[in-house]
């Protein structure tokens, strides 16, 4: 009888433990579902608010809002072409500079740098990502832009002034501030994202793969080109897309150095504007329904551009993963 009572007690304890585990799993599953649904609700709320706020501008200005570069609050004639152009061009300049430099830093830190120096250099690069954007803006306006105005832009104008095509890209007086300056500041800001993520994914390459390549007589460049980059391409592209998203939406630093001029110029030395800079500059001055709605419509456009970029990156990663099996 005593043994039966003991077995019954152990069975009860086991059932109680199992019920407690099941309740814990259900609670954890419910919390994760609630978190996922909360994210979707927040995202849906943001989209709904932007669309609702954009309707007055769309009704008043129509599709002409997307095709004109004029921006006149007095006559309530607004166009998004100049901010869209500035956003795309500054981001492209930033990525053209930051991608090779960031990947080069990652290669140096993982393959070539002396081991005692790897950690200090990596920390220094990561600290760049922690600097507030307004600090980049102030530094760009008072230090970087004057340096470009005195030394770099005159040299670019002199070097490319007689070359057809490039003469229009590097034309005009050297203001210091402008689209090129904003692109360079953005390149510095997104550089830590590319280099840090790329370095981390480079560290995931199994040492056996690299040692096998070295054993076959490959050089360091051949190991990086034939082993490291193919093995980590998905992670590298993901880091680049994350940096591009940061470049598209950066506000304060760009506002300081781009010149905030609502016009499109073929010269990257000329002042311009971006979507985020226009919103930051003019939201406090928007006193009319169409004016405010136009700024909200700009925000919706930036949201759509960012969504398209991230969706394209996701689609590209899926194709790469599918091809690699």
Number of helices: 11
Element order: H for helix, E for strand? HEEHHHHHHHHHH
Structural class by SSE content: mainly alpha
What global shape is seen? flat
Query: Strand tally, please?
Result: 2
CATH structural class: Mainly Alpha
* Proportion in β-strands: under 5%
Describe the structure in your own words.
- With 325 residues, this protein is an all-alpha fold.
- It has one domain: MetI-like fold.
- The protein has helices at residues 2-61, 81-112, 115-130, 133-160, 166-169, 179-202, 207-215, 220-249, 252-257, 275-282, 289-324, and strands at residues 71-72, 77-78.
- A two-stranded antiparallel sheet has the order 1-2.
- It starts with a helix and ends with a helix.
- One of its GO terms (molecular function) is phosphate transmembrane transporter activity.
- Belongs to the binding-protein-dependent transport system permease family. CysTW subfamily.
Structure in a nutshell:
Part of the binding-protein-dependent transport system for phosphate; probably responsible for the translocation of the substrate across the membrane. This protein is mostly helical.
Give me some keywords for this one.
single chain, 325 residues, mainly alpha, MetI-like fold, two-stranded antiparallel ribbon, 11 helices, 1% strand, flat
Summarize the helices and strands and which ones pair or pack.
Elements: H1 2-61, E1 71-72, E2 77-78, H2 81-112, H3 115-130, H4 133-160, H5 166-169, H6 179-202, H7 207-215, H8 220-249, H9 252-257, H10 275-282, H11 289-324
Antiparallel strand pairs: 1-2
Helix pairs in contact: 1-11, 2-6, 2-8, 2-10, 3-6, 4-6, 6-8, 7-8, 8-11, 10-11
